[in-house]
Amino acid sequence: MDVRIGVTQAPREINLELADDADRNDLKARVEAALSGASDVLWITDKRGNDVGVPAAKIAYVELGSAESTRKIGFGD
After folding, report:
1. Digit-coded pLDDT (tens) for 19-65
2. Were 42 and a residue from 8, 29, 34, 36 both cysteine, which residue would form a disulfide, CB within 3.0 to 4.6 Å?
């Protein structure tokens, strides 16, 4: 699953690729908790095991790709 996080006052977004077995509903719940103020930092572990923390107050948006998303290369479908 691909995750894109927009951060306020940052020119680029954070792009993460999560493990295939990542729980989409759990991630959505953690994002909602961070945005509601229940936690100060949104922590996400990518598929290589790296932990990425984003201050909840700086999150502009979060986009969750589908679990079976594939990246298209070239001009074909």
Report:
1. 988 899 999 999 999 999 999 999 999 999 999 999 999 999 999 98
2. 34
Tokens encoding 48? 């290589």
Token code pair at residue 51: 């932990």
Higher-pLDDT residue of 75 and 29 is: 29
53 class by beta-carbon count within 10 Å (0-12 exposed, 13-18 middle, 19+ buried): exposed
Work out the number of other CB atoms within 10 angstroms of the CB of residue 77: 4
Chain centroid to Cα 76, Å, comes to 27
**Beta-carbon contacts of residue 52 (< 8 Å; ≥ 6 apart):** 14, 16, 43, 44, 45, 46
- Residues with Cβ < 8 Å from 65, sequence gap 6 or more? 1, 2, 3, 4
Confidence of residue 77 (pLDDT cuts 50, 70, 90): low
